[in-house]
Amino acid sequence: MIQKQIWIISLVIVTSATGLGDIDQEDSLEDKTKGSKYWTCYCNDASCSGETCVGRVCYVTESYASESEGISRAKGCFNNSIKEHCSSLMSNLKEHCCEWDFCNKDKVLNVTINPSLVTLLLVTVLPSVIFIVILFLVIAWIYKAKLHRRNRLLAMPSDFDDADMLKASVVGDSTLGEFLDEYCTTGSGSGLPFLVQRTVARQITLVECVGKGRYGEVWRGTWQGENVAVKIFSSRDEQSWFRETEIYNTVLLRHENILGFIASDMTSRNSSTQLWLITHYHDDGSLYDYLQRTSVDSEGCLKLALSIICGLVHLHVEIFGTQGKAAIAHRDLKSRNILVKANKQCCIADLGLAVMHSQNGDYLDIGNNPRVGTKRYMAPEVLDETIRTDSFESYKQTDLWAYGLVLWEICRRTVVNGMVEDYRPPFFDVVPHDPSFEDMRKVVCIDQQRPNISNTWSSDNILSAMTKIMRECWFSSPSARLTALRIKKTLNKLRSSLDQIKQEC
Question: Is there a binding annotation on residue 75?
């Protein structure tokens, strides 16, 4: 009996020692319902004796320490409950716990990687630095190009070869007319060679100031016994000087109804820099001055009007070919910027705000002048800021609006049936002497007012035709206005009719 009891106790002890798997199997079945027993887990930790371990919880952890070490993953088991593990974790450390056999074997957590300071700088700061460098290079390139153009316009004598020096040495042997004919050929642009321009400028003697404006002063000067006009720009209006110089030197602009350009120079006098633009001199001055002291007959009115539109057509048209010219819109056409020649024709001056356009590549050169046009002559689309600034046609249409106002000024000073009106600027009766932008916008855009047309003009054939042209230049819709070429053709027909009547008489 005693031996039988000893055998049973030994069997229990052996079973307890060797039968753990059977207990685990039973525990596994029980754990699926109670969650409190042991599971076989995949293990790759250093503490593992093999590829598996047994515990109450299987786990997977992923952590990111550094760029060099990368992501480390650990899998194993715990003998504690889930609540004591897998609770709150950092963003660069994730842990997953589960409770069934090998539940951690294929689990991937995709831990969040916090970038290092270097990486953060590369991602955020480097693009900004690259952008700033590119912007600096673009600005530097634009400045260098501008400086190159200016140096080309103001090239020192030492920059030219001996042939140019020889030409400059014989300048005094010619009169101004012969001199200009020699150098200003149709194949060499509208201006003189750059060295000759500087040579001429330094031989000019200023005689008297004949005009002042916001741009500076106009002087009558003499060169080799000939009168020339010297427009001296103030330093704050340098862009206007540069723009006029650039246009005169780069396009074929010579035309009888465009002010003749002679030279441009930057000089230093009385410890200050002076910007000179030298042109032909006209004793009668501007059309504004001329109309205040002189009235005209209907034939004289037609002559003035036709010469202005001929100059405007030459500006607006593009001449194609290797010796062509770009199309140009004036943008500041008014009676003060039109000069009266000795033959009582007009020529257009002041190209400081001009816009150039070439159909080759649809290139539009607006320039870099912050100055705006004269408010009294601004078209409705400029005043209400609806003008298409990317369209060259828009700028030409503003010139036609202003031409209609200049035409009105001429017609007021035209004698009809022995009567003539005093000179007045456009809109003199509805805006102040120096109108503001808002003054003009209210009158032109909101109230839709236009200059008054005298009833007496209808009794004269020429003034009646002028009236029709004016009104077609003053449409609110820019596209409805006449073109310069159409006006030129109309006035030429009117002149032909007048010439025929004179011949018959």
Answer: no
Q: What is the pLDDT of residue 152?
A: 52
- Amino acid code (one letter) for 25: Q
Yes or no: is domain 16-98 CATH 2.10.60.10? Answer: yes
Taking residues 412-434, what's their average pLDDT?
A: 96
- As given in the structure block, the two tokens for residue 265 are 């120079």
DSSP letter for each residue of 97-158: EE-STTTTSS----PPPPPPHHHHHHHHHHHHHHHHHHHHHHHHHHHHHHHHHHHHHT--GG
In the chain, the amino acid numbered 299 is E
What tokens were used for 82? 């889930």
Using CA atoms of 143, 148, 151, 155 in order, give the dihedral in degrees to the nearest 10.
Answer: 180
**Tokens coding 101:** 């056999």
Q: What per-residue confidence (pLDDT) applies to 274?
A: 83
Give the dihedral of Cα atoms 47, 50, 54, 55; nearest 10 deg: 20
pLDDT digits (tens, 9 = 90+) for 295-344: 999 999 999 999 999 999 999 999 887 677 899 999 999 999 999 999 99
CA distance 287 to 410: 9
CATH topology of domain 284-505: Transferase(Phosphotransferase); domain 1 (1.10.510)
Residues 266-282: pLDDT tens digits? Answer: 877 667 778 999 999 99
Alpha carbons 453 and 451: distance in angstroms, whole number: 6
The CATH homologous superfamily of the domain defined by 162-281:
Phosphorylase Kinase; domain 1 (3.30.200.20)
Cα–Cα distance measured from residue 338 to residue 348, given in angstroms and rounded to the nearest whole number: 5
Quick one: average pLDDT of 470-476? 97
Looking at 186-334, list the stretches that DSSP marks H as alpha helix, in order from N- to C-terminal side: 194-201, 238-250, 287-293, 298-316
- Find out whether 310 and 488 touch, Cβ atoms under 8 Å: yes
Does the annotation count 31 as an active-site position?
A: no
CA pair distance 274, 231, nearest whole angstrom: 10
How far apart are the C-alpha atoms of 325 and 388, rounded to whole Å? 23
How far apart (Å, rounded) are the C-alpha atoms in residues 390 and 399? 16
β-pairing, 216-223 with 226-233? antiparallel
Q: What is the 3-state secondary structure (H, E, C) of 152-220?
A: HHCCCHHHCCHHHHHHHHCHHHCCHHHHHHHHCCCCCCCCCCHHHHHHHHCCCEEEEEEEEECCEEEEE
Per 3-state DSSP, what percentage of the chain is helix, strand, and coil (rounded to 5)?
A: 45, 20, 35
Catalytic residue, from 27, 332, 350, 460: name it: 332
